[in-house]
């Protein structure tokens, strides 16, 4: 009877990593090898032939991390780990003791598993999470990985993986900068407050009891940082003129008003055009008003 091969020696072979391009494929390979080992040392009734269960997948991932650590580190006293609170956990995996070790949370989150930065499986791991989380940015990807793994020089390693993706070039591309044009004259001239004014309407807002809709009339000074708010009962031209008169009564007359072509503004303009301006001019001239 031939003796079975030692699976520990099989796991030490680095060539198995180069056969697959995806991280999950490497984990599944380790899982099937562990399944084979289990079936070789159990009875016929205890043998498992179904697809890998989630528990077997997680067990294979822990085994893969242990293999990577054995290949990359000499133990918790390795010179590469200077400055980190590294310890050997009860599962024989090197973990990092973080500041949230006393938090009531998952073991991997409180004590993440240590991984090197230059291992090809670690690069596949980063690529897997990057694609899984829809090509997220550098900071988000690092935070996601930190929930389970502590990668040495993690930010630099993640940047190296992310930079290879064409879709992620937006993170390193230069911003399009357009030279700002000169400000219009009415933004720079010497004027009184609200002499140059922009007006807009916001709303509707429902009052208490939902009985009536109120609209906020917004006046913005174009020269100074000043805003005036008026509450009007509707979008009608008459309501706008009432709110405009209250603003003028408080801040003085406006020489220029900017607005969009809303129906209330157009209606107010039509009402103003219908006034007897000749009579108003004669009255103003008699009272020294230009």
SSE order = HHHHEEHEHHEHHEEEHEHH
Termini Cα gap: 117 Å
Low-confidence stretches: 1-5
Protein structure class: alpha/beta
What this model shows, in words?
It comes from Araneus ventricosus. One of its GO terms (molecular function) is nucleic acid binding. InterPro entries: Integrase_H2C2 (IPR041588), RNaseH-like_sf (IPR012337), RNaseH_sf (IPR036397). Residues 119-172 form the Integrase zinc-binding domain. The chain is of the alpha/beta class and 290 residues long. The chain folds into 2 domains: 13-172, no CATH class; 192-273, Ribonuclease H-like superfamily/Ribonuclease H (Nucleotidyltransferase, domain 5). It has 12 helices and 8 strands. 16% of the residues are buried.
List the defining traits of the structure above.
Integrase_H2C2; 2 domains; Nucleotidyltransferase, domain 5; 12 helices; 290 residues; Integrase zinc-binding domain-containing protein; four-stranded mixed beta sheet; RNaseH-like_sf; alpha/beta
